Amino acid sequence: MDTAFFLVRRHPNVYLDISGIPPKNLLQYFPRLEEISNKTLFGTDWPGPGVPEIKQNLDDFRALPLAEPVKQQILSRSALQIWPE
Description:
It contains 4 helices and 2 strands; from the N terminus they run H-E-H-E-H-H. The protein is mainly alpha-helical.
């Protein structure tokens, strides 16, 4: 996770996809997530083992102690920066 954090900060064309990390554990792996929120993409591993539904992952992510603008950046704005409408 340290290597991923380093690479995202160092290279302008590298982004972080958090789909493989359960939202409840996200800040354990990336305690400085807010610093790279503009290059972080929300995703889920649904359907898959341990992910009963997307809504629960989204609810767990929204419950994290992050500022609301940071959550919105990760949930949608980062993707729109890469793939504008």
